[in-house]
Design brief:
The chain has helices at residues 2-32, 38-42, 47-52, 62-92, 97-110, 114-131, 140-164, 168-176, 181-192, 194-210, 213-218, 237-247, 251-283. By secondary structure, the protein is mainly alpha-helical. The protein is globular, with a radius of gyration of 23 Å. The chain crosses the membrane at residues 6-29, 61-90, 102-128, 140-156, 254-279.
Length: 288
């Protein structure tokens, strides 16, 4: 009886979750549907001129799409190797007071509100202006660096967990084969941990793409156009959602906020789908 009640409770919770998610997606799509067209992304600008940057796009989402993709990819490039390396070190090297303290610091950093990371970037620019580089300003690189610090704990934690979940029998087998520590990590543990590491990368990408507090304080603005360099300001979809929903004067501007919401959701879902296909390909028996 208790097992059936528990099963029923799990089923009800699952259905509630699916219905809630479906309701949110349906509402966003229904509100944005009248605005989902080329003008939402490019406005009155010809498509090729907008994509190539020949003509600036006003009142549309193309610059925000490029800005979001740019800042997320740069943040991942900055955080990827340090995050994975930290996770490997925590999982595979002898425990010490330093490693215990580092693990605690990563857990604390993972729970740090993103607005504090944005405030750190904001004050960093003030320090640079006052003491080192008077011309320093908020920029794409600053936002990406702060986002990299924000997602680094996710990469380290998921890598550590994935490495520690490799069966002990497999580790013992590597000793029997005469592998040294480096060979064991490179040829056995890392390939067996691919799923967990990819999950961490997916989680980090989504975390970086949707964050608003960090980019608001470090470089994202409205109507900046396409990012011209790493040191330039830029537009981003999360900031566009906030800006258009908070400052809207017409239904069209509110429609831009809904359109940006659906676009951000599709961008994240597409990335997850591509990563999933890559992971399935890696599991294929014909994959080298």
């Amino acid at each position: 009886m208790r097992a059936r009640l528990f099963h029923l409770w799990c089923l009800v919770c699952t259905c509630c979750l699916i219905l809630t998610l479906g309701g949110i997606v349906f509402y966003l799509v229904s509100q944005s549907l009248p605005y989902l067209n080329g003008a939402l992304f490019f406005g009155d600008t010809p498509v090729w001129d907008a994509i190539s940057g020949k003509t600036r796009v006003w009142g549309a989402l193309w610059p925000a799409c490029v800005g979001t993709f740019s800042v997320t990819i740069i943040a991942l490039l900055i955080a990827l190797l340090p995050g994975i390396a930290t996770g490997i070190w925590l999982a595979e090297f002898p425990r010490s007071r330093f490693s215990t303290g580092l693990g605690l610091a990563i857990d604390v950093l993972a729970g740090t509100p993103s607005v504090l990371m944005g405030l750190f970037g904001f004050t960093m620019i003030l320090f640079l202006r006052e003491h080192i580089a008077p011309a320093a300003n908020h920029s794409l690189l600053l936002s990406a660096s702060c986002l990299a610090i924000l997602i680094l704990p996710y990469l380290a934690s998921t890598t550590r967990t994935a490495m520690q979940s490799v069966p002990l029998s497999l580790r013992i087998s590597t000793h029997a084969l005469g592998m040294n520590h480096w060979q064991r990590i490179w040829y056995v543990l890392l390939p067996r941990s691919t799923k967990g590491i990819l999950s961490g990368i997916m989680l980090s990408f989504g975390r970086a793409a949707e964050d608003t507090a960090v980019i608001m304080l470090t470089g994202a603005v409205a109507s900046a156009g396409l990012p011209s360099s790493l040191l330039a300001r830029y537009e981003a979809l999360p900031f566009s959602i906030f800006y258009y929903s908070a400052q809207y004067q017409t239904k069209g501007e509110l429609g831009l906020a809904f359109g940006a919401s659906v676009t951000l959701m599709c961008l994240t879902a597409t990335t997850f789908a591509i990563t999933g296909m890559v992971y399935q390909q890696s599991l294929s028996p014909h994959h080298d």
